[in-house]
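Q: Could you predict the 3D structure of DUF3224 domain-containing protein?
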Amino acid sequence: MGTVVRIPFEVTGWEPEPLDLGGGGSVSSSRVTLRKSFSGPLTGTSVVAMTAVAVGGAPAGYVAVEQVTGTLEGRSGSFVLQHGGVVDGDPQPATGVVLPGTATGDLAGLRGTVELRHDADGAVLVLDYELGRDAAAVVG
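A: Sure. Here are the predicted structure tokens for DUF3224 domain-containing protein:
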């Protein structure tokens, strides 16, 4: 798409609450509000609204929306990510997008895709982005 940056992050808050989707058995679900802090090319914070499902005690998958506020490579503003992932033995990155039209400030017009990885380097958000014409109007 455009510029690719690796952004280390840390989960700073985790507030789960049970969610009854019916079905029962060994499948459980929860609604989680979590908070993150970012460093590197993006400095800032986020609040995540996530719905997660587990089978027995093992995570099975999640979907989330995440409001990010901060400075991305010198441009300040906010934007919303939508992402999700499946846990199936072999760790795969969660994937998602920057929701079009959600970026504000110097980041207006931001578009892109995202991967969330947990590897030997820790938790990392990989953002492949471009700034659209809205950003050029704000910056220019």
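Q: Anything worth pointing out?
A: Residues 133-139 form the longest helix (7 residues).
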